[in-house]
Design goal:
Layout: E1 6-11, E2 14-23, H1 26-41, E3 46-57, H2 59-71, E4 74-78, H3 82-90, E5 98-99
Parallel strand pairs: 2-3, 3-4, 4-5
Antiparallel strand pairs: 1-2
Amino acid sequence: MITPAFDVVADRRGPVLKLLGEFDGDEVIRFREALARWTTLEPPRTLIIDLTDVQYMGSRGLGELIRARERLPHVVLKGVQPQVLRLLEVTHLAGVFELADGAATPR
């Protein structure tokens, strides 16, 4: 049995997906499946993606963040770590997402 790469908790603004460890490979597939379920049944107005515990994000993980942003009206990234922020900056995507408290500050 594979352990999920994220936890889901409720927040006053909407569901919070707390990603854990690396966001690439199989983790991306599970994230995509969960996102598809939410957007098909009753899409949340706001989705908060907590990246506090993400040590690595590959291009597939970045692609899934973009997919989430395209499917939902409001996606917030919380707890963005410096290495993930750098990836967002290099790809010119830092301004596409709202960064919540706990996110590293863009340089």
